[in-house]
Amino acid sequence: xxxxxxxxxxxxxxxxxxxxxxxxxxxxxxxxxxxxxxxxxxxxxxxxxxxxxxxxxxxxxxxxxxxxxxxxxxxxxxxxxxxxxxxxxxxxxxxxxxxxxxxxxxxxxxxxxxxxxxxxxxxxxxxxxxxxxxxxxxxxxxxxxxxxxxxxxxxxxxxxxxxxxxxx
Length: 168
Prior knowledge:
Shape: globular
Largest sheet: 6 strands, parallel
Order of helices and strands: HEEEEEE
Distance between the termini: 35 Å
Helix content: under 10%
Strand order of the largest sheet: 1-2-3-4-5-6
Number of strands: 6
Radius of gyration: 16 Å
Number of helices: 1
């Protein structure tokens, strides 16, 4: 059972008022209630949940028009499989606590329209990815990782460094 810090009725009323603008701002959530993303927001294109207390990427597959999801500066440690809609083209997971084993293999399997993925500034630092973690991202998708302002340490987002302690 998911919980949140705000009265769900108030949050839903607020989001319905913004639906015509097709974006939703941060709501001081600790988790996203299933009812919150059950498809009550048709046409929602941008969901900005930065600086909350989320610990996992919420399941937003019911938001079939969602193009932008920002989850910066939360406490996210996991990116599970099957939580992202195929319509998503930008996902920002920067400045969370996603470790090398925090992204499930196949987590991006359904993201056929993804153009940009940002995982910079996570602690511990994500400098490379295990085989399978980025499977599903389309060719040409931009992946920002490592320290902001400094290119990733390895030649590509998939680690190819022999003996890398994160990828063994």
